[in-house]
């Protein structure tokens, strides 16, 4: 096999990211949408520049990006903010997350007869909402008000719930694929052990990090230490086969709530990494889309899209009613929760990484192919419709002015 010049492809990838950023800024397109589309164009099925072998070689970029995504999610989980927003936020997050999961699962269970694990994993991915596109619209139009505050809180907490749903779903899926005659109780216990181990590692790492960093203000030192901790946590989670996203999210959340000052200093450093790794993450993610199978998965993809939309919109509205939110929140909140590219893509790549190993055989590889292609196919839809709907409901609610 021809040797792959990793450095050349890295340089080309970031140059493509630069051009994409300039293009999206000029035409006011969400950056993440541009990155995914460029990834599809450069991928195996069109220009064949970022071939499957190249993407595999650059896989560690995506892994590090997963760690950064998880850290940024955890930083948003401030208990003070959650308490201030009250029970309406909790109810909205619960019903929109589980609404999407349940409706997608039962809809696709009829499609994947005999392969329930596919429906289970796609349902867990459906629970996640991408904050990037939604928050970008809010910032662009300087939206303010109860609906805006609720949207920001929901998209921050939503991803944490989605990660927990995914850990349970993936545990059940693994048991189904291996054909093991294990009771649901045993699988549930194994999932709880996995979550518990992620929590223990994340919490212990947070306390150690705070202890080391409490008197350190030098930015170079903080940069070295936060990099060391994120990479070590990625390594530890890979070693113990637990969720890297959940572990690092818990690590970040505990730093945020135990020492906001240290989190602020560390978050400032992480923000420098974000443009580099997220650009690579979304481009490499887009490169996974095989347009040759779109004919096969297009119909299923549209079913997934409509089922998820019903779950998100209906679940959010129900949660707003139960939680006693304002009328405009009840009416509009669900329409701002459709984008899915961020954490959902992270989960899809996590599925590819965890299920494409020899232990799960051809079934594991098939799952990775189906999940990532359905997600990327529907991402093209949600990343166009999502920002438009967010702008529309914010304008109708009177929280932005042209």
From TrEMBL:
Pfam family, one: Na_H_Exchanger
Key word Transmembrane present: yes
Superkingdom, taxonomy of origin: Bacteria
Membrane topology per record: Multi-pass membrane protein
GO cellular component assignments: membrane
GO molecular function, one term: antiporter activity
Alphabetized UniProt keyword annotations: Membrane, Transmembrane, Transmembrane helix
Compartments, as annotated in UniProt: Membrane
Domain Cation/H+ exchanger transmembrane as annotated: residue spans: 16-395
Transmembrane segments: 6-23, 32-51, 57-77, 89-111, 117-138, 150-173, 185-210, 246-262, 269-289, 301-325, 332-351, 371-394
Any one biological process term the GO annotation gives: proton transmembrane transport
PANTHER family: CATION_H+ EXCHANGER DOMAIN-CONTAINING PROTEIN, NA(+)/H(+) ANTIPORTER-RELATED
Protein name: Potassium transporter
